[in-house]
Specification:
The chain is an alpha+beta fold and 656 residues long. The chain folds into four domains: 16-163, Alpha Horseshoe (Serine Threonine Protein Phosphatase 5, Tetratricopeptide repeat), CATH 1.25.40.10; 171-443, 6 Propeller (Neuraminidase); 447-538, Immunoglobulins (Immunoglobulin-like, Sandwich), CATH 2.60.40.10; 539-656, OmpA-like domain (60s Ribosomal Protein L30, Chain: A, 2-Layer Sandwich), CATH 3.30.1330.60. It is 22% helix and 28% strand. It is built from eleven helices and 33 strands. Strands 6, 7, 8, 9 and 10 form a five-stranded antiparallel β-sheet that branches. The longest helix is centred in the last third of the chain and has 21 residues, at 594-614. The N and C termini lie far apart (70 Å).
Length: 656
């Protein structure tokens, strides 16, 4: 953590004379390093103004003092102190440097102050040299050894980063979003067509014309087919209230929204996190996420995971490692959010962590921190989570993305190649504006794609709400859970690349829908999403579905382990609907003899039947039959066609 220890030169503004004498540099009866009566007279007058906190008047006399004697060290030190109290760091540094140039041994601690100022201003080379000069000085404050060693490491790190810059070319997102006010990016949809941000606005009392406290509200913009963002509009008063709102995040599937709000009637602390759910073209009334998430502390900066079951956020609650930490809370199978867990010391530091963003890959976390090795106060970092759930040590995202200024948040698109930040970059419209840029390859997350479409009843063609589950076939674990919109039937599911995946869509009163696929990086993108419209069949006689995720070894009737996900869905269907009777049908292509294909199809159908009976399904709910090559789904003239013909089907053959 970069701890700026302000070594007050003068103990206190009313004890300056004592501090000047304590330097131990006066000779015989001389009170100061100057012998000029004119300079000493001006300097004493400057001290009087300084003690009265009349800094402008004091600086006039400091400059008169130095006009009379340009080697008057105490005057330079006083000038540096006055400029520092007025937060004029560049001018302060000028006076401190002049004092050190005349005699660095007069007050060695000024070397540390110079180094700290240079670091704040991004002058890392001179900062390193002055830290080192002070570290080697015989009259240094030895209590600062550990701190100076850390500062030397910081400066070395910054010099290395500058000599190995990122490919960083930020582009202003445009005046339809950025204004002379301050804009902070909050969330961008998985398809990159919807952007939500916070605008911090100056307010004026219409009656008195006096300035009021700044207000933060949410705004939204949509991208048209030509890639142009629409003029940003304020969101509804469901979200924008008399209090401040910020840090909104929409889940990758687009159905959950979380944000931070203060001073609401149902609040549990200074800032609480609220959640809302998509309903058609609108959202439900936001509700407080409750005591498992919120408390009397400050809770903010929420970000939902791609499966919608985990949320990362920032809190200064007790039990943390620093001023504010990143915490994670999970939702159980009943939709209840549990108690927050600290991410630990690989992510959190003794400083402050802010603005966590978990990429839809579920493994890469980006955040802001002032507690890890960095370029300035708040820098941007990333951590990777391994298969055991352990987070890697943070990686600084590098220069010039990180510099001496505060960097307070970053969002990465689903492909992992484009990033969005709020920054005070050149070319902006106001203090903080939203920019986007191509992300350097070594700090990219794992790319993910997405599937979107419409879900309808096969017979009525009306949209319906149903559950979506995405499974990793290699591990038989569910990685995404979502649902379609009740009003529109629309859905969007994040799809990891380089994995064999099973999709299951189910709703009470319907046969489930399943399929499997594997997407390679680049197969689909924002420009070419994986579009899939799904029709669910009502539970009626003679309705048939293909069990696309039941797999057998080649020319065998041995079920593969990855079939368990699908067979579990068949079991759930039969258990939840005990009045239906189904037939398991086996089908083959026309490769090989008709007799062999008939026998293989029968054995495969029976293998599924046997599996279900062993697992507890009643035999009177089941039947099986082999069809061989007699009922092809399509022509056997291509490998694609033959693959479709090799299938296992489930058919409703009776309803009790």
């Amino acid at each position: 953590m970069r701890i700026y220890i302000l070594l007050i030169l003068f103990i206190g503004i009313f004890q300056f004379k004592f501090a000047i004498n304590s330097f131990g540099q006066s000779k015989s009866k001389e009170e100061f390093t100057s012998t000029s009566k004119k300079a000493i007279k001006s300097f004493k007058r400057a001290l009087t103004f300084f003690e009265a906190q009349k800094f402008n008047e004091a600086m006039v006399d400091v400059d008169l003092t130095l006009d009379a004697d340009s080697t008057f060290i105490e005057a330079y030190l006083l000038g540096g102190q006055i400029m520092e109290l007025q937060k004029k760091n560049s001018q302060s540094l000028y006076y401190y440097r002049k004092a050190a140039m005349i005699n660095p041994d007069f007050y060695p601690n000024v070397l540390y102050i110079i180094a700290s100022k240079e670091y704040e201003l991004g002058d890392y080379k001179n900062s390193y040299n002055h830290y080192l000069q002070y570290y080697n000085h015989p009259n240094k404050d030895k209590r600062l050894n550990t701190q100076i060693e850390h500062e030397l490491e910081q400066s070395e790190f910054c010099l290395y980063q500058i000599s190995h810059p990122l490919n960083f070319n930020p582009i202003n997102i445009g005046t339809n979003i950025n204004t002379s006010q301050e804009e902070y990016i909050n969330s961008i949809s998985t398809d990159e067509n919807t952007l939500i941000f916070t605008r911090k606005m100056k307010k004026v009392n219409e009656v008195t014309q006096k300035s009021m406290p700044d207000e933060e509200d949410f705004f939204i913009s949509y991208k048209d087919p030509n890639g142009v963002w629409s003029f940003a509009r304020a969101m509804s008063n469901q979200f924008n209230t008399h209090g401040n709102e910020g840090a909104m995040n929409i889940s990758p599937d687009g159905i959950k929204m979380v944000f931070t709000a203060s001073h609401r009637d149902d609040g549990l602390g200074r800032c609480d996190i609220y959640i809302s759910y998509r309903k058609g073209n609108g959202w439900t009334t936001p509700v407080n996420m409750g005591p498992g998430v919120n408390g009397p502390s400050w809770d903010s900066n929420p970000c939902l995971s791609s499966d919608g079951k985990s949320m990362y956020y920032v809190s200064n609650r007790s039990g943390g490692l620093g001023n504010s930490d990143i915490w994670m809370v999970q939702m159980d199978e009943y939709g209840i959010w549990g108690n927050a867990q600290n991410l630990g010391n690989n992510v959190n530091s003794k400083g402050s962590e802010m603005t966590p963003f978990i990429h839809p890959d579920g493994q890469t976390l980006y955040f802001s921190s002032n507690g890890h090795l960095g370029m300035g106060n708040y820098d941007l970092y990333m951590c990777k989570r391994d298969k055991n759930g352990k987070w890697s040590s943070p990686i600084n995202l590098g220069y010039p993305l990180n510099d001496k200024e505060n960097q307070m948040g970053i969002l990465i698109n689903s492909r992992g190649d484009l990033a969005y930040i709020s920054s005070q970059q050149n070319g902006g419209e106001g203090k903080y504006d939203i920019f986007y840029f191509e992300l350097d390859t070594h700090i990219r997350p794992n790319p993910v794609n997405y599937m979107k479409g419409i879900l309808v009843d096969e017979q009525t063609k009306k949209p319906i709400k149903a559950a979506f589950e995405l499974f990793d076939l290699a591990t038989n674990t569910m990685i995404i859970q979502s649902e379609s919109d009740a009003a529109t039937g629309s859905f969007m599911v994040v799809i990891p690349t380089n994995s064999s995946l099973a999709l299951n869509v189910n709703k009470e009163g319907y046969l489930f829908h399943s399929e499997n696929f594997k997407l390679e990086p680049g197969d689909y993108s924002v420009q070419k999403p994986y579009l899939k419209n799904v029709s669910l069949k009502p539970l009626k006689l003679d309705q048939t579905i293909v069990l696309n995720n039941v797999f057998f070894a080649t020319l065998s009737f041995d079920l593969k382990p990855e079939s368990e996900v699908e067979l579990k869905k068949v079991m759930d269907l039969l258990i939840n609907n005990p009045t239906i009777i189904v037939e398991i049908g086996g089908h083959t292509d026309d490769v090989g003899s008709e007799v062999d294909n008939q026998k293989l199809s029968e054995k495969r159908a029976k293998a599924v039947y046997d599996y279900l009976v062993v697992k507890g399904i009643k035999a009177n709910q089941l039947a099986y039959k082999g069809y061989g090559e007699k009922a092809p789904f399509t022509e056997n003239s291509s490998e694609e066609g033959r693959a479709l013909n090799r299938r296992t089907e489930l058919k409703i053959i009776g309803i009790k």
